[in-house]
Automatic annotation (TrEMBL):
Protein's recorded name: C4-dicarboxylate ABC transporter substrate-binding protein
Organism: Carbonactinospora thermoautotrophica
Alphabetical list of Pfam families matching this protein: NMT1_3 (PF16868)
CDD domains registered for this protein in UniProt: PBP2_TAXI_TRAP_like_1 (cd13569)
Annotated segments matching region Disordered: 268-287
Length: 297
């Protein structure tokens, strides 16, 4: 959207107590303060699927997305009826699959969720995509074998506190405000080790999934928790002006310290790792930046 010489951009983020929203809000501020003639605002959304649909409709959007959701967008599968015109600016950081269960529920692994009341994440969120795949990898049908509810992060946390669900899925950075709130309010809440399904996930969907560790101190847990990690990408429409895409990519690294003040996950910004956005192609403007840095061929 051009008007009075100002380019207006929107940053499609996620739910208000999630990392995308906090990180994206800071990113919009940093863009507005540092790119001449550009104003950016952050929007709360349902997250990955919603964000890709917004980006696909307009070259004025930047969107945060999980790599597994982005892969289906590029292929035109899952929630997408045709390949979406998206390009990546950068790999940002990993999302951690956080499956919270009530203490005393007897739930020790994903397969134990059979017959339980489970929040699978908000409709059209990356969390929902990942949750369904994890359940299937554990041998469960998400539509029949669990009593699934499609709740956003805030609603899931409240349902756990109220005892109306036995478990909840969340895919997010560390720490996620909503999960911190839950573990502080209920010291018996535990996070599941989900890595027993990692081989099955990778066999079906490829190396987009990897093992990551949630340190005990993140949420005051009794021990570290191994779980499935998924990369996060920042994506734009393939039609975005090359120079603008270049400037936005450069800004991520030039103003990394400003972004870290918004959320600590921005510490993971690394020009050597950022071009790894498979299977989403890099935007030509971003590619030019990484080539100048010697980080891409």
């Amino acid at each position: 959207a051009q008007g009075s010489g100002t380019t207006r951009l929107s940053v499609a983020t996620g739910q208000t107590t999630g990392v995308y929203y906090v990180y994206g809000g800071r990113l919009a501020q940093v863009i507005t303060e540092n790119l001449a003639g550009v104003e950016a605002t952050a929007e709360a959304t349902g997250a990955s699927v919603d964000n890709i649909k917004l980006v696909a409709r307009s070259d004025t959007y930047l969107g945060f997305t999980l790599a597994d959701t982005a892969a289906t967008a590029v292929q035109g599968t899952g929630k997408f009826t045709e390949p979406q015109p998206i390009r990546a600016l950068a790999y940002l950081y990993d999302n951690y699959t956080q499956v919270a269960v009530k203490g005393g529920s007897g739930i020790r692994r994903l397969a134990d969720l059979r017959g339980k009341r489970v929040s699978l994440g908000a409709p059209n969120s990356g969390t929902e995509v990942t949750a369904r795949r994890l359940l299937q990898a554990a041998g469960l049908d998400p539509d029949k074998d669990v009593r699934g509810q499609r709740l956003g992060l805030n609603e899931s946390v409240q349902a756990m506190k109220d005892g109306t669900v036995d478990a909840m899925f969340w895919s997010g950075g560390l720490p996620t405000g909503g999960i911190k709130d839950l573990t502080s309010a209920d010291r018996d809440v535990r996070l599941l080790d989900t890595t027993d399904v990692l081989d099955e996930l990778r066999a079906k969907y490829g190396p987009v999934y990897r093992e990551v560790l949630i340190p005990a101190a993140t949420y005051g847990l009794p021990g570290d928790v191994r779980t499935v990690g998924v990369p996060n990408y920042l994506v734009v429409n393939e039609r975005m002006n090359d120079e603008l895409a270049y400037q936005l990519t450069k800004l991520l690294f030039d103003h990394k310290a400003d972004l870290v003040r918004g959320h600590p996950e921005a510490r993971k910004l690394d020009p050597a790792k950022a071009p790894a956005t498979e299977p989403v192609p890099l935007h030509p403007g971003s590619l030019r930046y990484y080539r100048e840095r010697g980080a891409a061929s």
